[in-house]
From TrEMBL:
Residues annotated as signal peptide: none
Gene3D superfamilies referenced in this protein's UniProt entry, alphabetically: Glycosidases
UniProt-listed InterPro entries: GH (IPR017853), GH_1_N_CS (IPR033132), Glyco_hydro_1 (IPR001360), Glyco_hydro_1_beta-glucosidase (IPR017736)
Keyword check for Hydrolase: yes
Record-annotated active site: E179 (proton donor), E373 (nucleophile)
Protein name: Beta-glucosidase
Organismal lineage: Bacteria, Bacillati, Actinomycetota, Actinomycetes, Micromonosporales
GO molecular function (one): beta-glucosidase activity
Catalytic activity: Hydrolysis of terminal, non-reducing beta-D-glucosyl residues with release of beta-D-glucose
Family, similarity comment: Belongs to the glycosyl hydrolase 1 family.
Alphabetical list of NCBIfam families matching this protein: BGL (TIGR03356)
């Protein structure tokens, strides 16, 4: 397989570590988090428009109505990307902009925006990497069952074809879904994300229909001529708290099943793991899995996107109630973070990224990988040494994985700029570009200037 996107030419690092020639350097964003213009040019409401207006769901009642106003300021933002020497930019398309009710007439004004954005990126030598779904489901589809019903998967494949029909002549890399774990378990399991349901059985139906949506869309895109197809997962790097304790090892195996293998195996092997199906059948009857579905989900991909932020450690704890975002996890406890944490309270452990990448390489050989999100939230302003330290350490972890033989093709920093951080609203800042939400002024943080030098060197000092 070939690399999925091209990178900028880069000079090798004179000292320190150097990444392979052609290694892709980019940043990533998501439509609802940055675009704003929530009611402009025919855009319909998404589940996040509804959820953010539900009292108590999002910090301080924040919404994405304006966000970073990227819809109007995209040219300014692309200029920033060019200044940073980015080789690629991963952005998502808002389904409600394209088909406001999910399945009906196509809104050409929505397509026009992504057309302009794509051309602007290409004019600056930046490869557009399109994610078709980053959580902003049209509200009308949710009203008809959302990801718990098969119709949504079928509608997604149709929407994917519409977007490809407009942008396919210029976009080389197509990512179907971003983090279906979050869409299923945070949206339908514990309800802390849109649409805010708490339904363990429904969350498992959502897992399957998201997997099916990926397979249907991947096949449709390939038939239409897409060159490189991907999906982005956020695997749980889960370890037993005591590796010598068989009960802790068994607990980690259960969490790995419902968090990771329930996605990895049908996508990359063509079937759900038998132990996972047996485990979750206690929660739901699995009648939503139809004959032929697993074959559809197993549509070939060219690269697997990996989003990574923090590890997990689990132990057996009889009597512990199940975590709603891990169906069937009763009797399992998650260790609280130890050591340094980010502003999200997430434990910092770069070596766990190396473990995750080498595990995927070992268990699913021949699968090219891309870090499609990695970064940290900190309350620092423009001067952000902790973010630089975090990214530096995780890039070194990536290099360790490369040295171990992992086929890792690139790295996308999360995020280009501060933005609407889902249920956290505007309280958490992940950007390497600072955004003043009152004036919409963008200012490069120290981390952005540092990252620009990393790209120039194609390595670290």
């Amino acid at each position: 397989m070939t690399a999925t996107v091209t990178s900028t030419s880069a000079q090798p690092a004179p000292t320190g570590i150097t990444f392979p020639d052609g290694f892709v350097w980019g940043t990533a964003t998501a439509s609802y988090q940055i675009e704003g213009a929530a009611r402009e040019d025919g855009r319909g409401p998404s589940i996040w428009d509804t959820f953010s207006r539900t009292p108590g769901k999002v910090f301080a009642g924040h919404t994405g109505d304006v966000a970073c106003d990227h819809y109007h300021r995209y040219a300014e933002d692309v200029a920033l990307m060019a200044d940073l020497n980015l080789g690629a930019y991963r952005f998502s398309v808002a389904w409600p902009r394209i088909r406001p009710d999910g399945t009906g007439p196509v809104n050409t004004r929505g397509l026009d925006f992504y057309d302009r954005l794509t051309d602007e990126l290409l004019s600056k030598g930046i490869d557009p990497v399109v994610t078709l779904y980053h959580w902003d489901l049209p509200q009308t589809l949710e009203d008809r069952g959302g990801w718990t019903v098969r119709e949504t998967a079928e509608a997604f494949a149709e929407y994917a074809q519409v977007v490809f029909g407009r942008l396919g002549d210029r976009v080389g890399t197509w990512t179907t879904l971003n983090e279906p774990w979050c869409s299923a378990y945070l949206g339908y399991g514990n309800g802390i994300h849109a649409p805010g349901r708490q339904d363990p059985a429904g969350s498992l139906a959502a897992v399957h229909h998201l997997n099916l949506a990926h397979g249907l869309a991947a096949r449709a895109l390939r038939s239409a001529g897409a060159r490189n197809i991907s999906i982005t997962l956020n695997p749980c790097e889960v370890s037993p708290l005591d590796p010598a304790n068989p009960a802790d090892v068994a607990a980690a195996r259960i969490i790995d099943g419902v968090a990771n293998r329930i996605f990895f195996d049908p996508i990359l092997r063509g079937h759900y793991p038998a132990d996972v199906l047996e485990h979750v059948s206690r929660i739901t009857d699995l009648s939503f899995i139809k004959d032929g579905d697993e074959e559809i989900i197993n549509a070939p991909i060219d690269v697997l996107g990996i989003n990574f932020y923090t590890p997990s450690y689990v132990s057996a704890k009889p009597g512990q109630p199940a975590a709603l975002d891990y169906p069937g996890s009763e009797g399992i406890a998650f260790r609280k973070p130890v050591g340094p944490v980010t502003d999200m309270g997430w434990q910092i452990e770069p070596e766990s990224l190396t473990r995750l990448l080498t595990r995927i390489h070992r268990d699913y050989p021949g699968t090219p990988l891309m870090i499609t999100e990695n970064g940290a939230a900190y309350p620092e302003g423009v001067h952000d040494p902790l973010r630089i330290e975090y990214v530096d350490a995780h890039l070194r972890a990536c290099h360790d994985a490369l040295a171990a033989g992992v086929d890792l093709r690139g790295y996308f920093a999360w995020s280009l700029m501060d933005n609407f951080e889902w249920a956290e609203g505007y309280a958490k800042r992940f950007g390497i570009v600072h955004v003043d939400y009152t004036t919409q002024q963008r200012v490069l943080k120290d981390s952005a200037k540092w990252y620009r030098e990393v790209i120039r060197r194609n390595g670290l000092e």
